[in-house]
């Protein structure tokens, strides 16, 4: 289902992937610095989640400024929260690369403000989180991650040139939030692995994301 989400004086293009049964949880998904919501990995993940009963709303927001992207993400969260068609108990924010930085920023902002005491945001999924620029390991983009308290899943390639394995593990060890990293062996920042098809890699990513979502929703229902 295609929708337009109001954002300032513009609208963001977005698509709902709707499960057959009425969903109780949703995922908001966005893309990296290049591309848009039709990036194959996002389409694949959205279809997988919807087929497993999770509503997925993916949106496009061009712009290379993280603060701007975070504002757009916030507008989408508000839209879904007030959306009469789908009454959700909670939502997970997810993004690929720069999109995951924007998602992390939104969660930090909302948790520091008073407007998310209702626990609508359940967690964060970071696909290929860009912890540093290529070859610039001294400057880590970890400030939002260290302040988040909701559960976080990282899915990263062990050969990601923007997220060195030891550095991410170091940041994660300092995080207050419940967290998990799933390493895709030998994958680069684009999740490409020599000798494996893109579909094969995405199957691994999708299954990991869904099982983590399920674990976290169950933990909260107990």
UniProtKB/TrEMBL annotation:
The record's listing under Pfam families reads: Abhydrolase_11
Family matches, as SUPFAM superfamilies: alpha/beta-Hydrolases
Q: Which PANTHER family match?
A: TESTIS DEVELOPMENT PROTEIN PRTD (PTHR13136), TESTIS-EXPRESSED PROTEIN 30 (PTHR13136:SF11)
Which protein, by its recorded name, is this? Answer: TEX30 protein
Q: Which organism is it from?
A: Setophaga kirtlandii
Do you know which Gene3D superfamilies this protein is assigned to?
Answer: alpha/beta hydrolase
Cite the InterPro entries for this sequence. Answer: AB_hydrolase_fold (IPR029058), KANL3/Tex30_Abhydrolase (IPR046879), NSL3/Tex30 (IPR026555)
Describe the location of the KANL3/Tex30 alpha/beta hydrolase-like domain by residue ranges: 27-212
């Amino acid at each position: 289902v295609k929708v337009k989400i109001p954002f300032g004086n513009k609208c963001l293009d977005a698509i709902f992937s709707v499960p057959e049964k009425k969903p109780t949880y949703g995922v908001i998904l966005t893309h990296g610095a290049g591309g848009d919501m039709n990036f194959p990995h996002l389409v694949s993940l959205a279809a997988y989640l919807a087929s497993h009963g999770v509503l997925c709303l993916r949106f496009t927001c061009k712009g290379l400024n993280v603060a701007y992207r975070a504002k757009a993400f916030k507008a989408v969260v508000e839209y879904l929260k007030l959306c009469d068609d789908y009454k959700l108990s909670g939502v997970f924010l997810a993004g690929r690369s720069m999109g995951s930085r924007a998602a992390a920023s939104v969660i930090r902002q909302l948790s520091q403000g008073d407007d998310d005491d209702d626990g609508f945001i359940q967690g964060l999924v970071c696909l290929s989180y860009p912890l540093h620029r290529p070859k610039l390991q001294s400057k880590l983009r970890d400030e939002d991650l260290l302040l988040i308290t909701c559960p976080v899943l990282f899915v990263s390639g062990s050969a990601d040139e923007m997220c060195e394995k030891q550095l991410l593990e170091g940041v994660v060890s300092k995080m207050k939030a419940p967290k998990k990293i799933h390493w895709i062996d030998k994958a680069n920042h684009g999740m490409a692995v020599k000798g494996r098809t893109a579909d094969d890699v995405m199957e691994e990513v999708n299954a990991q994301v869904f099982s983590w979502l399920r674990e976290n929703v169950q933990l909260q229902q107990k």
